[in-house]
Amino acid sequence: MAKKQPVNLDFESAIKDLEKIITKMETGKLSLEENLKSFETGISLTNHCQSLLSNAEQKVKILMDAQAKTFKDFEIDLDQN
Fold first, then answer.
1. 67 or 64: whose pLDDT is higher?
2. N or C: which end of the chain has fewer CB within 10 A?
3. H/E/C letters for each residue in the chain?
4. Mean pLDDT value across the chain
5. Where do the structural domains in the chain lie, given as residue ranges?
6. Domain 10-80 fold
């Protein structure tokens, strides 16, 4: 498997690469050095995925907060009429 830098991967690609690493490691046919390299890559991919999820969660929170404010403003306008 060609080693990609996780920074350039989207979430779905990073998950697919992580699944490939897990499958390869589960075979039990890798040397200790190959397992360690795969584990290191897997940790990097996991951290990258967690970062992407955290960013997405923050964006959703911002959007939900903005929507809640819009509804609150709308309710205030209705009360004034």
1. 64
2. C
3. CCCCCHHHCCHHHHHHHHHHHHHHHHCCCCCHHHHHHHHHHHHHHHHHHHHHHHHHHHHHHHHHHHHHHHHHHHHHHHHHC
4. 87
5. 10-80
6. Helix Hairpins (1.10.287)
